[in-house]
Amino acid sequence: MTKFRALVGMVVFSAMLLSATAWGKANDPPPSGNSTPTTSNLSASVVTLGLQSAYAGPGYFTLLPGVSAACGTQAQVRAGHNGSGGSAARFGSLPLVADTAGKYTVSNLSAGTDYTVCFVTGTFMDAVVTANFKTLVAADLTAKPWSKLGK
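Above: the chain sequence. Below: its structure as tokens.
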């Protein structure tokens, strides 16, 4: 029985080693099944994020102020944290269907501000992918001429 356990342990260890090196060098991260986040419906205070993965399951994002802000690790993004371990300005999750973009609308953003989206799925094999966008500047209508319409 002891020989059998040792043999099973060697087979399991060999399978783990093979799966860890199947995509390249032993220290290379596995390829990501996540697409770069997209944006739509962009205004001074709102954006709709398009988040897509090759796999079905939960998708997680953090929204950080600044261009190319430091995203957290996979675990930090899932927990709603930035690269320093602090809370992200905005974070959330949504269920994803494989190869279909899920939409998530974020509101109450600051006008004219750069943001970085950090996105990862529920699988620990996927790398964090990022995208940058800038909210529109709010229109200043205080000095504009106004005229009466109708009666």
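The radius of gyration is 22 Å.
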